[in-house]
Amino acid sequence: MDGAGRGRRVTIADVASRAQVSTTAVSKVLRNAYGVSAAMRERVRAAIDELGYRPRNAARAMRGRTFTIGVLLPHINNPFFAEILDGLMAQLGGTDYQAILVQGGRDPQGESRAIDALVDRQVDGILMVAPLSSKSGLEEVATGTPTVVLGPHERSAVYDCVNNDDEAGAELAVEHLIALGHRRIAHIAQKDRNQGRPATLLHTIREQTYRRVMAEHGLAGEISVATTSYTEAGGYTGARELLARVPRPTAIFAGADLAAFGALAAIHEAGLAVPADISLAGYDNTRAAGLAHISLTSVDQDGAIMGRTAGRLLLERIEGRTTAVQFCVTPALVPRRSTARAAGTRGRGSQVSPTQGE
Question: Which is higher by pLDDT, 60 or 253?
Fold first, then answer.
């Protein structure tokens, strides 16, 4: 972010003062306008670099709206993000707004560069999906650009929040597996990469809820967690780790469908069957989870509604609303054939009829 470590944002006047030129001259350099000498351009560029100035609100005020919405995604591999985008685009349909997508990556530095790229392009608002930045960093951006944050469970006076009741959703998944007679229920969690706010993050809430529900049912001694990532590779690695433990779990709750897909591959690679040997549940209820050959039990948090709501709130922010809003989706469990009653004394090779899965 610009002006890091400063008490206020660097202005065009600060750049003009450092370069010892007029603000008009700085504006001309920023716009690459005619009539600026090479020496003056060099002085202004040097001042911009020294001060860390980024042309944000001033440029927007001069040009007016750009009718663009910036969308920050951690990556584009998660199919649940596509459902969020579907909802957002449905909300923007019929308006003059277009979405610009950027990928923040898996580290705060890459995300910061992506956010700066959106702000530099003078988008009218930003939707941040599962951002890594600290709350203070998000608020710095939101102070200058209308912002909606999707995922984290936190409140802010300067940006809106859209999330799902992750505690209720994780409880549905674990209770479902316990009701099927499973005791050795394992969990694939995600490692924290965010800056100083783990308690508000969805993957932290899902893991904590798993631990709580297990303990409430007298299964604290059966708690088994593999901490990897909400990716196919992470789910694959996590499942391999869990399958190697003794005793082996009879059920796995993956914190995201994408991780569950990786776990499914690891289970099959180990010569085991789902759900005959191991029941498997995910979270997100992505379209792929409902495919007949996958049939994954999953927690539905309605990504399309989340995306549509985020779009509506963002447009309201752009139109001048300043009161902060928090919107939370109530999840629902969608049982499918990947979960069934605990195998008990059945042998490894036995199969469960699809009607036994829920």
Answer: 253
Give the integer Cα–Cα distance in Å for 173 and 206: 10
Q: What residues does CATH 3.40.50.2300 cover in the chain?
A: 66-163+303-330, 166-301+333-356
Find tokens 């993956």 and name the residue. 254
CATH node for 12-55: 1.10.260.40
Q: Report the share of the chain in percent with pLDDT over 90.
A: 66
Report the CATH superfamily, name and number, of domain 166-301+333-356: Response regulator (3.40.50.2300)
| d(C-alpha 110, C-alpha 168), whole Å | 32
The whole-angstrom distance between residue 310's C-alpha and the CA centroid of its chain comes to 13
Q: What is the mean pLDDT of residues 74-93?
A: 94
Could you give the C-alpha distances from 60 to 37, 64, 113, 188, in angstroms and in order?
25, 5, 19, 44
Quote the tokens at residue 170.
């994780």
- pLDDT reading at 3 higher than 80: no
What are the two backbone dihedrals, phi and then psi, of residue 336, each rounded to the nearest 5 degrees?
A: -140, -165
Determine contact, residues 90/82, Cβ cutoff 8 Å. Answer: no
